[in-house]
Design a protein that fits this description.
- This protein has about 475 residues and is α+β, with helices and mostly antiparallel strands.
- It is built from six helices and 25 strands.
- Helix 1 packs antiparallel against helix 6.
- The protein starts with a helix and ends with a helix.
Length: about 475
């Protein structure tokens, strides 16, 4: 190619690629994942075994985890990063499940397993589910705690993770127990065992801020004001009522629902009553909170709780509420009691986290005698701010309602046939524009070469 033509092609390449590459680099920056949920039953047959007549055990939820559908656990507050150009995805979810079974005469459990903080990482066509695990080995009873164990491999079924939307939604990803997972599972299953499928949805920020995977919980800010006893600046009480009651309400018998009003918030397994007003003094507290919670369903189910109040006196906490139902209505009913010893301020915040709660006698009446006095209810979490710059803990973040989803069918899906990211106007893949531009550039180069050849040919013919 003559020097003049080479120079022209070089200039065109520099101009086109110079304009495109900065945009591509900017788009390639990982965007922050902020809010979402992960639904996973771990292994439904294991749940049945734990709660069945052999192990005669149970499970409990921690850190705001919830139950959803049939035999699934919901983990919340997704946090991490997503790169729409490469498809790389990493998000950690909050909450945990604690299984116990095979109770001994001494009161200990031979089966004791906690799985928490699931994290999904996808790179290329490979997906892995990591979890924190505390387990008691089958036979020896040795307790082991491990952080972010690569617990299961996830089959993506040919899903193309690239895209530029505002959410990542994946449904029913087949999960297979890894060797590390089998070891941390206390020897109950071998590597290669099929686990329950994993579904998730995660909101993706429009910008390219890029954060690390974390719990999604707020950290109280440092206070610039004095932490003196007195009136509250803000406050919230979080209570899920009772897991089995929620499951009864939404299950096949009651076929009902719950609704929140007057400022109450839904955190999945936790209901928040905010706007706390009252006073704190030397470990004692008297506070009232806003919001109402109503359960409705078949067979006359209609229970409303409002006017929530919490009193802590001499280390004992009591949660009150106004109760309205067809069978029982009363004001300021003491529903549950909980331990709150040594209540002290730290960073402008006075807090009680997941304190075990028991139903009172009048509380039993509020629930139509469905439960007896002394029944364990969901734990109570409480936080009140003594200063205006003290931040309350974050409510579990389930993210936006998924608007698009992908089901991974490893047997039938073809590469590139699925789109895991909902479309959005705030972003997009840069692969197509670059491809078109490069194609156009090649066409220009080819045309120049053809023109040059024609000119050369014409000159030769003239000779």
């Amino acid at each position: 190619m003559p020097a003049r033509l080479r120079a022209l092609v070089t200039v065109l390449c520099a101009a086109v690629l110079g304009a495109l590459l900065p945009a591509a680099v900017a788009q390639a920056a990982a965007r922050e994942v902020q809010g979402g949920r992960l639904d996973w039953g771990i292994k439904s047959s294991f749940q049945s075994y734990v709660t069945g007549p052999i192990a005669n055990g149970s499970y409990s939820l921690t850190g705001g985890a919830a139950t959803v559908g049939d035999s699934q656990f919901r983990f919340h507050s997704a946090a991490g990063t997503y790169d729409g150009d490469t498809g790389a995805f990493a998000a950690s979810f909050s909450g945990g499940v604690h299984f116990v079974g095979h109770k001994t005469d001494a009161g200990a459990y031979q089966l004791d397993l906690t799985i928490s903080r699931p994290t999904v990482r996808v790179s290329g066509s490979t997906g892995t589910l990591y979890v924190d695990v505390t387990s008691k080995a089958k036979g020896t009873g040795t307790v082991t705690t491990s952080s972010q164990v690569p617990f299961a491999s996830l089959a993506l079924g040919g899903i193309d993770m690239r895209g530029g939307g505002s959410s990542v939604v994946l449904n029913n990803l087949p999960a297979t127990l890894t060797s590390e997972g089998a070891e941390s599972f206390a020897g109950y299953y071998t590597a290669g065992t099929a686990l329950d499928p994993v579904s998730l949805s995660a909101d993706v920020a429009a910008g390219g801020s890029g954060g690390g995977a974390g719990s999604g919980s707020a950290t109280p800010s440092a206070s610039n004001s004095s932490e003196a006893d007195g009136a509250l600046a803000d406050g919230a009480v979080d209570w899920g009522v009772r897991r089995t009651f929620r499951e009864y309400v939404t299950g096949g018998i009651a076929k009902g629902k719950w609704t929140l009003s007057d400022g109450a918030e839904d955190g999945g397994a936790i209901f928040r009553f905010g706007g706390g007003e009252g006073a704190y003094k030397s470990g004692d507290l008297d506070a009232e909170f806003e919001g109402a919670l109503r359960f409705t369903g078949a067979h006359g189910l209609d229970l409303k709780l409002s006017g929530v109040r919490v009193v802590v006196d001499d280390g004992k906490g009591t949660l009150y509420a106004d109760v309205a139902s067809a069978e029982y209505s009363a004001k300021k009913v003491p529903l549950v009691t909980f331990a709150a010893k040594g209540l002290k301020a730290k960073g402008g915040l006075v807090a009680v986290t997941e304190a075990p709660a028991k139903l009172t006698g009048r509380g039993a009446k509020a629930f139509g005698s469905m439960y007896q006095a002394g029944t364990e209810m969901d734990p109570v979490s409480l936080a009140v701010a003594l200063t205006s710059d003290a931040a309350l803990p974050a409510l579990p973040d389930l993210g936006s309602t998924p608007t698009a989803s992908v089901t991974a069918e490893a047997e039938s899906a073809s590469p590139g046939s699925a789109e895991p990211v909902a479309s959005s106007s705030d972003g997009g893949s840069v692969g197509l524009p670059i491809g078109l531009a490069v194609g156009s550039l090649l066409v220009v180069v080819a045309a120049l070469v053809v023109v040059r050849k024609r000119r050369t040919g014409s000159a030769s013919d003239g000779d």
